[in-house]
Give the backbone structure.
Amino acid sequence: MTRIEVEEGVELFVQDWGSGTPIVFVHGWPLSHRMFEYQYIRLPREDIRCIGIDLRGYGQSSKPWSEYDFDMFADDLKAVLDELDVDDVTLAGFSMGGGVVTRYMSRHNEDHVAKLALLGAASPVLAKKPDFPEGVDGAAFTGLAAGCYEDRAKVSSDFADSMFHSAPSPVLKDWLQNMSMESSPQAMADSIEAVGEMDLRSDLADISVPTLICHGVHDEACPFELTAEKLQEGIENTELVRFEESGHALFYEEKGKLNRELAEFSK
């Protein structure tokens, strides 16, 4: 475990477990690297090095008053990978983290990355646009942001509920909600607005590495047909794996299947 300075006064927390083929995990809104616990405790037994990063504003990373957008997150990720001096990684992004890694691949020319894994990814675009009328109403994202300033605990609780196809145990939900509440209120609000404004469709053509798309068919946060199917259409070298028993939380609901897919793909 270490902390890496990405700019003056801003450090990101990095957990680095195991050895072998490296997978770099980028978490989703509004969680932290700890959401991948059930990957970290299994994959190192398969000779996979698991590197988990807390994005700026989340988990144990610095929480400055600053802009929170996909360019900033991608630039922070580049600084971490440069400092770790790790190459040929499988870069894995979940939910908002899927958008972060999509932006990274285009903005930073796939540097350090041999393979890409998009897990329940909020990518390439979610909100309605003039040329994307099937998207989610933008008011959903501004409403979540407003809720962060009114009753952030309720926003966290409601989101934890919405992640699952099958109802989670109360203690599991509490774990995710507590993780969410570790985030900066500003980061949480601004990040979800950035998700609503996001349009990464033009970035997809810049992705040339083999790409694994894992997505729950019951995902309500990032609907399968708006994200997984669009990613498969837009990225040249892809494999799409359906998670038939999962909502957004495929990292837990079908953790065994996800671990097997990641292990096979990364090697």
Summary: The radius of gyration is 17 Å. The first helix runs from residue 37 to 40. The mean pLDDT is 97. The CA atoms of residues 165 and 247 lie 4 Å apart.
